[in-house]
Amino acid sequence: MNTYAIIALVCAAVVLLLVAVGVVIALRKRGKHSPHAEQERVDGQSAQPSRQGADEGGHGAQPRAPAGQASRPDQTGPSPSQSVEEPESSSSRMTRLRAKLAKSPNPFGKALFTILSKDHLSESDWEDVEDTLLRADVGAEASEQLVDELRSDARVNGEKDPAAVRAMLREKLLAMVDNGQDRSLLASRPGAAKPSVIVMVGVNGTGKTTTAGKLARLFVADGKSVVMGAADTFRAAAADQLETWGSKVGVPVVRSEREGADPASVAFEAAQQAKDSQADLLIVDTAGRLQNKANLMDELGKIRRVVEKNLPVEEVLLVLDATTGQNGMVQAKVFAQAIGVTGIVLTKLDGSAKGGIVVSVQRELGVPVKLVGLGEGPDDLSAFDPESFVDGILGAE
Ligand SMILES: Nc1nc2c(ncn2[C@@H]2O[C@H](COP(=O)(O)OP(=O)(O)OP(=O)(O)O)[C@@H](O)[C@H]2O)c(=O)[nH]1
Predict the structure, then answer these.
(1) Which residues bind GTP per the record (predicted)?
(2) Is 289 marked within a binding site?
(3) If you write DSSP's letter for every residue of 91-149 in order, what string do you get?
(4) 205 labelled as ligand-binding?
(5) Which ipTM was obtained for this model?
(6) Is residue 65 domain-resident?
(7) Considering the entire predicted model, what is its pTM?
(8) 213 CB less than 6 Å from ligand 1?
(9) Is the CB of 207 under 6 A from ligand 1?
(10) Which residue has the higher pLDDT, 216 or 166?
(11) Is the CB of 321 under 6 A from ligand 1?
């Protein structure tokens, strides 16, 4: 093979190589636009909005308006990303909680009805009536009085129509529960101070903080402006708990960052702030305390005194846990002496079969039950309504 032939062969090989490289590059370029690759790109883009969707769902971790309720624009405390809830309206709450109260486990009315509907009441039946009342925490004195009244009522022995016996029992129970006292909160009465102050007191764990939060919602639902004071500086989480309640409905909470700070100074600050901001209400939460700890009880007196440097303390609500029964009575008396109690909040009535405490606490303290807690839901706090309560304990007709 001569030199020219070799050069020609090399040239041909180079040309072939260049053509092959060109084809490979062209194929690769086309490959990038293949339907499969296009699908991947589209999927990649569609994944973006779906992640955004997940983020929107993720707002569930932040405060949300309860189902069926609208969010309000942020007005006071919360950051712009937080929605402010609109608490349930008073009328809707009353209807819902009346139905709930009617279903609450208070079997003593039904037990009494069963005994009193018998044809002949023996001595042991009357003892059963009294036992039933005592077990329901009606208290010894009130139980005895009710039994005496029932025994001397001719209708009990003469009347065997169940509807008539029920009506008679309803009348007697209502007379025991409804002593004619005004149960409205002082803050809701005409001529109330502004800001009107409510101090929450009680032993540990009765539901003071929860009730303070629910109460704030109740006033917000009625269009009032509220400030809360976290004077429970003893339990580390109490101020955070109150702040969570407040932030959901745009209620500012005055607190100390220091655990164990002087509760009276927090209460003083809160009163100052409520006054400066011309709020309608100041709700002060205090630490749970045992009624036999004299220094803690003195502290309550001090809280009251310092608040009164700025504002009159119109209402002191003693929060009692309905499930603790007659123990609550001892507490109630000591608190009434230490700070002066204007009303009772009976919490956890949803979980108690001992509604009779309503009767004993009112009798022995001369203070009305103003509110009842009927659950852990944010709007499960209701004004106490004697008729619904008695209908609840007697059960449906
Ligand atoms: N079922 C039911 N639970 C309630 C009610 N009120 C409060 N609770 C619950 O009772 C528990 C104690 O409530 P808190 O508000 O922390 O009690 P507290 O009195 O502030 O507690 P201390 O500050 O430790 O004295 C919580 O689990 C509440 O959810 C109610 O009406 N019904």
Answers:
(1) 202-209, 285-289, 347-350
(2) yes
(3) HHHHHHHHHHHHTSS-THHHHHHHHHTSSS--HHHHHHHHHHHHHTT--HHHHHHHHHH
(4) yes
(5) 0.97
(6) no
(7) 0.75
(8) no
(9) yes
(10) 216
(11) no
